[in-house]
Each structure stands twice: as structure tokens, then as C-alpha cells.
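If it is no trouble, might I ask you for a protein's amino acid sequence along with its C-alpha cells?
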Amino acid sequence: MRNRRSLQRGAIAAAIGILVSTSGAGQARAGDGSPPAPSLAQEQPPPAPQAPPPPGFHGGFAVPAAGPRVLPWREGEPVPPGYHPETRVRKGLVISGAIVFGTVYLFTAIGGGDAVYRGSPGYAALFVPCAGPFLTLATTRQDDLETMALVLDGLVQITGAALLLPGLFVPRTVLVRDDVSKPFVLPAPVALGPSSAGLGLVGRF
């Protein structure tokens, strides 16, 4: 009887000892001061904010500052920075003169060639620019309507030539932006397809 009670007390004491040791180990683990291993997301610093591109930068290369390409200028006036004087033909006079003179002279020459082909050699003078219609008045015989047409034809040719020749041989001096007239070649991205790109060259010559 005593032995049985002694065994029971020993078993109870052993169970209490196991419970105490288990709870102590759990508290030691809970009270451990070592921090948990940081995750990969915590180790990487946040990306630095990207600064905006500088003014005038686009497509991988610098774009010249905006401004008028051509400015009127007279001799002796100051030249603003970024511009330089250039001598150019007068496009307005050249275009208008070429249209007026070229159109009228073309039809006049065609009419003169047709008249010569039909046996009227006096109309060969129509091949002479400006003076041809007036020379034809002396080399052929016409009625009043044809005479008026030849005089008007000659006057229109002279007017067109009066516009065209000064536009070509009396140029004007203007201020041109430096980046407009200078040739340049710069790299630029080029799309080769919906999902591919390459590198090309752009410029002005």
C-alpha cells in the first residue's frame, strides 16, 4: 500500500517537472531578443525619384530652343544671340515671277511651234522670251484681236520676268537661327515594328 502511494507521488512529481520544464522553454523562446530575419522587400531601399528631363530634351537628344526661324534684319542693326545674318533669295518674287512668266511663255511657245508646223515661219519669233510677241508683230500679218493678244502676251511675260529676276539676283539679308541653317546628325530611336525598336540617325543637310 505504501509502495503504491509512493509510485503515484513519484509519477505526479515527474509530470509536474515535465510541465514546468516545457513552459520554461516556451517562455525562453518567447523572450528571446534576436530580431526576425528581414525579408527581401525590407532589405531593398525604395527607388530614388527620377528628376524631370532638362528643357529642350526629347527623344534621346537635345532639341534646339524654340524661336522664329527667320527674322527680318537691316544692315547695322544688332544681331540677337542665337542668330546670324544670311543672304537669301526673295522667295515671294521668285515664285510669283516663275508662275506668271513660265505659264504664259509655255503656251506662247506651244502656239508658235504649232503655227510654224502649219507653214507660218514668221511665228518662230514667239520662241524668244518677252520680246517674241513684239517681234511677231513685225514678221506676221494679224487682225486687231490677234495684235492685242500678242501685245498683252508680251506685257505679261515682261511682268513675270520683272518679278523673277530681282528675286534671284537681288537677294535680301535676314537673321537665321543658328540651329536651323547648320547641318547636324543625331541618333534617335526608330520603331522597327510593333514590338521592336532600333537606333537611327536624324539630321539636316
